[in-house]
Amino acid sequence: MNQFLNGGPLKDFDRFVLTTALGPDDEEDAYADDHHSINFSPVVWSLLLKEARNLPSDEQLEFYLKRQKNVAQMAGFDSVDDVPRNTTFWRAYANTDSNDPRLDEDAMKALRTEARKLVNHAKWAGFELPDGSEEHLFEFGKQDFIELAEEIAHDLLAKTLPHIAFGRDPSRTTYSLPSIVGFLAHLALEGAYPENGSDTFNHMDLYENGGTGADNFYHYVRNRNAEEWFDRFLRANAELLEEARSMGHFENASEVALDTTGIPWFGDTSNNFVDGTKPSRNYAHSFHFTTIGVVGDEASLSLAAHHLKNRTDQDRILRAILQRVKGLHYFSDDQLDVDIERAYLDKGFYGGMHVTALRETDTEFLIKSRKVEPVKDVIDGLEEWDGDWGIMQDYEVGDLKQGTNIFIQPSEKRAPRYDENTDEEDKKYGRWVAFVTDIDPVSADREKLARQFRNRWGVETQYRQFKHKFYPPTKSSKGRVRAFHFNMAQLFYNIWVVVNLELRDRYGVLERRPVTSDDVLHAIRDEAIELDDVPE
Residue 247's Cα: distance from chain center in Å? Predict the structure, then answer.
């Protein structure tokens, strides 16, 4: 049970016990009559145990507690002699002519929900459960998912927001940091810009002093540059990574993916932070960001994003990102441990300057190679010899003086897409994939490396989600403001990922994604209200 109290679903159960749904503010038994008065909290703990173990009666509960000293003490009784008779447990929830229960139907339902959390956490932790311990527990419905998501989101916000604090004096501040985060979640939900979204947010009357306005919000965001926002969100997201790791996910978080993406820009294109997009886009210019994240078989988490002034600045930003993340590992406590051993990068990072940045930060790498002529020559040979892989050693990428290795093998991703209408050159070379690396391709497990690289596509899923679901829009042309909005979208996305992981892994929910992006944004907007002690 200690595992359930320290970090598990029961760590806040005492707070749950003392909510108005479960009992009055005082903890004395109002129905003691002629027997000694007892503390109410151990009674509720005991009833939780009865539900979790599926004990058939209050008599069985009394019998069990009086023979399990350690369990009785964990429930809150000083000794087994203090365990009350079964009638005391019965009076806590029984509704009779002579008894008005302190635990009504809603409270008992909430108690059974907590019991289900306990049982599923026990399964997740690897404990053997007594026969029939799950049969009596009701199945979760959509509303149960939402309520649990709100609880989890509340705890995750409490962990992450202190890292993003604006550094304001709370005594001189009208709007709290939680209210600003709730405001941003509102913008993401409504797809509204701060200038008009603040009006609808204020009409909701969520906060005593009203919601923050656009000018007030921008004032605080502009006080820090993009590099500072990168560092702050990196630490916040590292907390979420640790939470996911505690459930067995991202154990290989030393392997990261880096990529570049953009938010559409339709304003003045002379802005220093605006760059062109691919011809296939339906918009010509974007604010570009280089992102770093961890990817797994089931989900991905973004660590942070740094705005990119232009593509020629990409190697400097890549170096800065790796140095900052590695610095987080070496110069902070174990709770923020994001050590990097290998990085996976798309062909946008194919170039000598990027390889140099990776080497200077002592980062092993795998970069998707462009189909340059030397690579095509090797593929031609493979086609002729009917080979399934090829290598190029000490190959100079761009102006790189010290060469790298390239290995080539069939592409599992693109081969099935080709038909009689496919361009012949694309059909010939597109069926192969090439990787640039310092790893020795002869002795390495090339198939494993290529498989691990494919996990990088989880980053593409991230982009679709947090740009279209979690991004609070802004018209600002300031790089630091854009960086704040983009990183906030990543934080919202990460909270959504971790909430769903917890629902599945700790509470036994079978659905892959029990709650939607909107569900979590609503939870963030509403739960941020309760976070009164977040430092500014």
Answer: 12
Q: Rounded to two decimals, what is the model's pTM?
A: 0.75
Phi, psi of 409 (to 5 degrees): -155, 165
Give me the half-sphere count of Cα atoms (radius 13 Å) on the Cβ side of residue 498.
Answer: 30
Strand 364-368 versus strand 342-345 pairing type: parallel
What phi-psi label fits residue 205: left (phi over 0), alpha (psi between -120 and 50 degrees) or beta?
left
274 three-class SS? strand
DSSP 506-520: TT---SSSSS-HHHH
The radius of gyration computed from the CA coordinates of the chain, to the nearest angstrom, equals 28
The contacts of residue 143 (CB under 8 Å, 6+ apart) are none
Confidence band, pLDDT 50/70/90 cuts, at residue 419:
low
- Residue-wise pLDDT for 25-43, tens only, equals 344 444 444 334 557 778 8
Residue 32 in tokens:
């003691």
DSSP 418-444: --TTS-HHHHHHTTEEEEEESS-TTTS
Closest by CA to 9, choosing from 505, 506, 527, is: 506
Q: How many CB atoms lie within 10 A of CB 18?
A: 16
What are the sequence ranges of the domains in the chain? Answer: 2-125
In three-state secondary structure terms, 402 is coil
**What are the structure tokens assigned to 96, written together?**
């009779």
Widest distance between CA atoms in the chain:
96
Beta strands 255-265 and 342-345 are: parallel
Cα distance between residue 464 and residue 149, in whole Å: 22
